[in-house]
Each structure stands twice: as C-alpha cells, then as structure tokens.
Amino acid sequence: MPADRLTKAVILSFLRCYLVGANFNTRGMQNIGLVYAMLPGLAAIHKDPARFRQAVKRYVRHYNSHPFWAPCLVGIFLSTEQRIAAGAFPPAMLEKVKDRTTYTLSAIGDSVFAGSLLIYWALSTACLLLAGHTAAALLEGLIFFIGLQVFKVYTFWRGLRGGFLFLESLKRWDLINWGQRIKYANAALLLWFWMLVWPKPVAWQGWLAGMIGLAVTARLVQQFRLPRTIPAVGLAALWALYPVVVESLGGWPF
Q1: Which of 3, 76, 83, 95 is deepest in the core (most CB within 10 A)?
Q2: Per-residue DSSP letters for 169-208?
Q3: C-alpha 189: how far from its chain's center?
Q4: Which residues neighbour 152 within 8 Å (Cβ) at sequence distance 6 or greater?
C-alpha cells in the first residue's frame, strides 16, 4: 500500500483517539469509540473487504480502559494488524492478549492518572490559588496539558512501532510505584491546603488531634476493611465533641 496513504490513516486514527469515550455505552463500554479510532488504520492495512470486516469484528467486543491510554492501545493494535496482514501474527492470538493488556493498563491508569496525578493537579492548583499565585496555577495547568499531549503522541508512536513489545518498556517505567510516591506528595499538598483555609491563628493541638484521628481512621479502614463512611462518621462525631473535651482539659486553644 502507498506509504502516504497509511501515514494519513494512522494520523487520523490517532486524532480519533480523543473521541474514544464519546459514545460510551453500558454494554460494550468504549468499544464503539475504539472501532471508530481503528477504522482509518484498518481500512489502510486490510484492503480486502472480507479481511477488513474480520478485523473490525475483533474490536467491536467489550472494551474499557483509561482514556489516557487510548492512543497507546490503538497504536499497539494497528501495529499488530499490520503483522496479521503480513501473516506474521495469528488473529486468534490477538484476542488472548488484547483484553489482558487493556485491563492491565486500565488499572495502572486509574491508579497513576485518576488516583494520583489528577488529584495532585487539583490540590496544587487550589493551593496556589489560595496562596495568591494565580500565574503559577495557570502555568502548571498548561504544563500538565502539554505534557499529556506529549505522552499520548509518544505512547501512540511507540505502540505503533513496537506493538506489544512496547509493554516491556512500560513495565520498566514502574508507574505503579510512581503513583504511590505521588500520593505522598498529595498528602503534603492536602496539609498545605488545610493550613491555607484554616481560621487563624492555628492551634497546634487541634492539628495534632486531627492528624492522629486521620491516621487512626486510615489504619482501621485498611486493616479491618471497613466501609469508609463508618470511620468517617465516627471521626466527624469526635471532632464535634472536641470543644467540650478541650474545655474539660483546661481550655486548649480551639
């Protein structure tokens, strides 16, 4: 096939990755969006109508992953389809590895992006705005936005070039542990946020009691697998009784 035709189809497939979640449905989740993104590349790879229809059927089943991984997965799938068209990769093998790859990256995306980086961006932006650093908050948002686009382009390109072999490089990135490190930073940002919104002057005894209460609550949730609402309500009740306890102990600053 002409190289320019394939290049244009690949670029169009990448751009359509931004619309993967536009037709979300309860049956196939993001499957319609995935097929929509794959169609230009599949049409350029499989010129035989029968093989093209077979290729499309491989992607109409259930699909759901974090949207930030959509370009990477589309790139990997298009690379695999090129090998299927060349007879170097059996189509049946794709079904076995596609779902496993999709759900693994989905879990990593939920932990690193949704559970760590997005929270970091929200907390840091709130803290910067409360501290009066409006320009810094805007600059941080632009950096995150541009960084996300670079991430999508890079992972799409690497997935397109390496196929499933790119997953070995992703494994070396150690994203899960990076997500844990970012959560520690989020805890520090949350403390900074409280310090900014807390009425002045700050009573260190109240801060100490609050930190101990949160630590104990988190430990109870983790160790006994309690629903988070139960210890949260208990902690809120104890905090409501805090003025009475303070007064009975001699009047700590409140």
Answers
A1: 76
A2: HHHHH-HHHHHHHHHHHHHHHHHHHHHHHSPSSP-HHHHH
A3: 19
A4: 14, 17, 68, 70, 71, 72
Q: Tokens 């209460």 — which residue? A: 213
- Alpha carbon separation from 154 to 68, 166, 168, 175, 193 (Å, rounded): 12, 11, 15, 16, 34
- In angstroms, the CA 212 to CA 194 distance is 15
Residue identified by tokens 């409140």 is 254
Q: Give residue-wise pLDDT tens across range 130-182.
A: 999 999 999 999 999 999 999 999 999 999 998 888 988 888 888 888 888 88
Identity of the residue numbered 14: F
Peptide bond into 227 cis (omega under 30): no
Burial (0-12, 13-18, 19+ Cβ within 10 Å), 77:
buried
